Amino acid sequence: MKRTYLKTALTSSFTFLLLSSLTISCQQENKAEEGWESLFNGKDLSGWKPLAGKADYHVEDDAIVGVMTKGTPNSFLVTEKEYGDFILEVDVKLEGNTTNSGIQTRSHYDSTANNGSGRVYGRQLDIDPTGRAWTGGIYDEGRREWLYTLELNPNAKTAYKPNEFNHYRIEAIGNETKTWVNGVPAAFVIDSLDDSGFIALQVHSIADSLDGKKVYFKNIKIQTKDLKATEFPKDVYVVNTIANDLSEAEKAAGYALLFNGKDTTGWHSARSDKFPEKGWKIENGIIQVQKSDGGESTNGGDIVTNKQYKAFDLSFDFKLTPGANSGVKYFVTLDEATKGSAIGPEYQILDDELHPDAKLGKDGNRTLASLYDLITSDRNPRPRKPIGEWNRGRIVVTPDNHVTYFLNGFKMLEFVRGSEDFRKLVAGSKYKDWKDFGEAEQGHILLQDHGDAVAFRSIKIKEL
After folding, report:
1. 243, 369, 403, 461: which is deepest, by most CB within 10 A?
2. What does the pLDDT look like over 278-289, one tens digit per residue?
3. Assign residue 353 a region: left if phi > 0, alpha if psi is -120 to 50, beta otherwise?
4. CA 176 → CA 173, 182, 230, 443, distances in Å?
5. Which residues form the domain of 334?
6. 129 with 161: CB under 8 angstroms?
7. Same domain, yes or no, for 176 and 280?
8. Handedness of CA 371, 372, 375, 381 (dihedral sign)
C-alpha cells in the first residue's frame, strides 16, 4: 500500500508539473500574441475577396495559396476591412526565381480602370526573387511605380531566402511605411498619400511558362492599437515624398535642407556674393530657373551654396519643361574664369527627346542623369518620369571619392574621382584644358541656369 501510494503521489506530482508547465507555456504564448489579430482563420477565405485578375486563391493546409495563371493581369486577394495605422506580419513562400508577388498596404480599387476590368493601386511591399533582389522594396502599384528600390539599401538584398517561407514585417504608422525581410530593415518611405485602405495579397501576371506556379501566405497577423514604431538604422536612406520636409528620422541621421522652400537663404550667385536679381523665382515651395534664351548663364546665372562640401549624400527633386536643359554641379570652386556656367562635375538634367544636347557628346553622355560629357547614365527607361512630372536625383560622394548617381531610386552610374579611368575620360572631354578637373578637395553645390524653365525642391544634404 505504501509503495502504491508513493507511485500515485509521484505520478500526480509529475502530472501537476506537466500541466503547470503547459499552462505557463500557453500564458507566455498568449502574452506574446497579445495585441495581435489574425487575418486568416486557417480554414477558408473569410474576410477576403478577389479583385482585378483571375488567378485562383484557395486554402491548402495552413496557408492561403495563389496560383499563377497565364493570360490574366495582376490578381489580388484583398481584405474586406480597411486599415489606417497598423503593424502587419506575414510569412510568404514564392515558387520560382523569375516570378513576383507582393503585399499591398492602404490600397484601393478603381473598377473603371483597364477598360472596366479594374485596377488595384497603392503602396506594396515587393517580393522579388530575381537577380535584381529588390524584395522588401516599396512599389506604388498602379500609380507611381517604384518609391524605394533596394539600390538605396543594398545591405537588404541578401535577406530573401529563395523557395522558402520568408517573414515580412510592415509598419504603416502616420506617413511612415517601413519594411523588414526576415528581420533585416529593408525600406523606409514617408508619403502623405493614402492614410487608410485595404491590405491585399498579390499574384503577379506571368509568362505562359510559369502557369501553375504558386505563392503561399500564412501566419497573417496585424496590430492596430497602441502601436510603437521600430527605429530604423540611421545609415539607411529615407525616401520622403513630402516637399521640403525634413523628418525626425532624417534629422537624426544628419540631413539638412539646402533650400527651405521659402527664400534664398544659403544660396548666392556664382558671379557675386548676392543672389541674382532676376532669372530665378521662389514660389509655392519651389525654386525655379526662369525661361530666357536657352543659353548658359545669360540671364540670372548659376546659383551656388554658401557652404562648401567634401563628402556628402545630396538629393533633390527636379521638374523639366519641354525641351529644357539644366544641371546640378558639385566641387565647384569658382576659381576658374568662365563666361558661361561655372566649372564642376555635373549631374545632367535634360529633356532627352527634345533638347539637341542629348545627341552631342559621346554615346549619350550628355543625357539625363549622366556625368555630363564623361559617363552615360543607365539607359533603362523605367527610372525616367515624363516631362512635367517630378523626378528625384541623388548624388553620393564618399570620403574615398567614390561617386554614385541615382534617378528615382535607380542606380544610374558610378565612378571614382581622381582615378586613372576618370582622368582618361576627362582627357577626352570638353574639360581637358581644366587642370585637375573634378578633383577639388571641396566645393560648392550649384544649380545651373541654362536659359530654360526648370524647377527644384526638397534639396537635402548629409555630410559624410
Report:
1. 369
2. 999 999 999 999
3. alpha
4. 5, 20, 11, 34
5. 245-463
6. no
7. no
8. positive
